[in-house]
Amino acid sequence: MKNTSSHPAAEALARGMRLPLTVDPITRELYGHAVPVLDRTLAAAQLARAGHLVGTPAHDAAMAILEARVDRFSYPGR
Q: Which end of the chain has fewer surrounding CB within 10 Å, N or C?
């Protein structure tokens, strides 16, 4: 199988790490229910601790994977 990953270490970390979730405060205020969203600050800190600094292509690739995982978590069947 061909490896199509551009940043394998960062992408593997994003696939294996526990999702740092928080509640979307706007949805809670407007509609009165909790919707999980990615806690981008916590995710960035976890990636930075592993050496994938904010603003680097590896960080961006990892954040994209985390966002996709949250989307699948929030909207099952996608």
A: N
Please state the pTM of the whole predicted model: 0.83
Distance CA 64, CA 20 (A): 14
- Helix 57-74 to helix 8-16 angle, to the nearest 10 degrees? 30
21-73 residue pLDDT tens: 999 999 999 999 888 899 999 999 999 999 999 999 999 999 999 999 998 87
Query: Helix or strand or coil: residue 3?
Result: coil
Structural domain that includes position 64:
8-74
User: Does residue 70 form part of some domain?
Assistant: yes
C-alpha distances (whole Å) from 46 to each of 13, 24, 27, 68 are: 10, 20, 26, 17
